[in-house]
User: Fold this.
Amino acid sequence: MSVESLLSVHSVSLRWRGHAILSDVSLQVAKGNLVTLIGPNGAGKTMLLKVILGLTRPDSGQVELQPGMRIGYMPQRLTVEPTLPLTVRRFVTLGTSATRAQVSAALAETGAEHVLERPVQNVSGGEFQRVLLARALLRNPDLLVLDEPVQAVDVIGQYALYDLIGEIRRRRGCGILMVSHDLHLVMKTTDWVVCLNHHVCCSGHPDSISAHPAYLELLGRDGVDHLAVYQHHHNHRHALSDEPIALSGSDDHG
Assistant:
């Protein structure tokens, strides 16, 4: 493991309920780098994150983390009971010893300080994702692990969130491992792409992956068409989505 490497995954394999979920998967995340996992539903992306976070033990292989490293984790989905009286401020501090000033600063960094005293159930999809990101940042992480960070957000809001994630990486110098379905959305932000479908189909710079035969076979012609449709260049900011958020649990392995 190199000095700058925060995370090294070596030949990890895992079977779940009789099915091969991960097969000989390897990847690395270095300090200051943003690595994106791309793949279809059920490809094993979320399960790989669980292995990396120590929540699931692989059948074989090894995960190496830099000693003393702090990890901030943003889950794919979260269940919040509709009747639970929980403000954003209280939600963000659950399980932490963060001060009021630290919470306010984290929410300000993600652009969600205006929802501080709202009930969690009353924030929009884009706002809630920013709240989850702020909660991960409270750990002052060396490595951010983001599982589908643009869930329940419209396309305009997705671009804004990916821009924010890129800004956080540049400002903090942390490494980021991010799961996404959409290469066309993350091309501008990410340094390295790992295309996963239970095994690593291909990996490389996003420009090279977008034309790689394994990527085209895995995600189909739509992935190429989206690359042409959604080129996104601007010098303005997007407002947060006003779409109401649906908070529900998930036990998928994608």
About this structure: Helices lie at 45-52, 88-93, 100-109, 125-137, 155-172, 183-186, 206-209, 213-229.
